[in-house]
């Protein structure tokens, strides 16, 4: 498998005793550490993504990525429902429920999942086959299950911190739009609507999540766990691409 920037996907590391005993980082230092995780370990550095953006993927490779990434996309509202259930105020639940609607839509034919299905169709994939999940790779299933179970089992702070890969997502979406328009013109342009909508959504969602994490992580232990949770999520995304790349 391709070597990730750090460790392979797995549970977040437990903070050391020295970290637990130390005082908290300042808000600015804590935010800088969170952002550094994305800068160093986000999957934009994965060889498969680099090849995608350089226009070096075959049609079959790109279709395989679309089909397997859809397995992740369709589980985003599932993990967000699990996170929403951890919140104890209506304001927090309303804020996070909007993420579910962003992907599921307010009605049939709307939302991010529907837009990803249209991307698949624009690339020549059959909608019913995408929905069946018949071509999803075992490694992709394992990575997605790991992330969903993480959001199910870990405290709200860590579950929200894991979503901070969204800090890096808007830049990746802009790069991807440019790459698809330049190198993969055989895909119908309307299929790129998912990427376009995720630029403003990702910026908004990451800002809200970052604010929560900065406010909730009061101790050094909390801060270390948040950083580890974000690292785990980067490993999940990296492992997913490993499975697709080596299929």
What does this structure look like?
This protein has 247 residues and is mainly α. The chain has helices at 17-21, 27-41, 47-53, 59-73, 76-84, 90-104, 112-122, 127-132, 138-153, 156-162, 169-183, 193-216, 220-245. The longest helix has 26 residues, at 220-245. Mean pLDDT is 93; it is low at 6-10.
Protein topology:
Blueprint: H1 17-21, H2 27-41, H3 47-53, H4 59-73, H5 76-84, H6 90-104, H7 112-122, H8 127-132, H9 138-153, H10 156-162, H11 169-183, H12 193-216, H13 220-245
Helix pairs in contact: 2-13, 4-7, 4-13, 5-6, 5-9, 7-12, 9-13, 10-12, 10-13, 11-12
**Outline type:** globular
Helical residues, percent: 55-70%
**Rg estimate, integer Å:** 18 Å
Taking the sheet with the most strands, its summary is: none
Number of helices: 13
Kindly report the average pLDDT value.
93
Q: Structural class of the helices, strands and pairings?
A: mainly alpha
Percentage of residues in DSSP E strands: under 5%
Helix-strand pattern: HHHHHHHHHHHHH
C-alpha end-to-end distance: 11 Å
**Unreliable stretches covering 5 or more consecutive residues:** 6-10
Annotation, overall tally of beta strands: 0
Structure in a nutshell:
The chain has about 250 residues and is mainly α. The chain is about 70% helix and about 0% strand. It has helices at about 15-20, 25-40, 45-55, 60-75, 75-85, 90-105, 110-120, 125-130, 140-155, 155-160, 170-185, 195-215, 220-245.
């Amino acid at each position: 498998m391709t070597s990730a920037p750090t460790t392979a996907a797995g549970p977040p590391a437990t903070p050391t005793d020295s970290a637990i005993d130390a005082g908290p980082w300042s808000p600015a230092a804590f935010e800088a550490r969170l952002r550094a995780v994305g800068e160093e370990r986000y999957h934009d550095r994965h060889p498969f993504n680099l090849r995608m953006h350089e226009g070096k993927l075959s049609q079959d490779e790109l279709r395989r990525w679309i089909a397997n990434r859809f397995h992740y996309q369709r589980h985003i509202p599932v993990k967000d429902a699990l996170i929403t259930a951890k919140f104890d105020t209506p304001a927090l639940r309303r804020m996070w429920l909007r993420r579910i609607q962003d992907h599921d839509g307010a009605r049939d034919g709307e939302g991010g999942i529907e837009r990803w299905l249209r991307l698949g169709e624009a690339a020549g994939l059959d909608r019913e086959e995408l929905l069946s999940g018949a071509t999803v790779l075992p490694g992709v299933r394992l990575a997605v299950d790991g992330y969903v179970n993480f959001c199910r089992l870990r405290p709200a702070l860590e579950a929200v911190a894991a979503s901070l890969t969204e800090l890096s997502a808007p830049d990746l979406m802009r790069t991807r739009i440019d790459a698809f328009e330049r190198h993969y013109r055989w895909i119908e342009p309307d299929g790129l609507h998912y990427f376009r909508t995720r630029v403003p959504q990702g910026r908004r969602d990451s800002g809200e999540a970052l604010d929560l994490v900065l406010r909730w992580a009061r101790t050094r232990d909390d801060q270390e766990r948040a950083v580890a949770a974000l690292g785990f999520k980067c490993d999940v995304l990296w492992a997913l691409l490993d499975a697709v790349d080596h299929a």
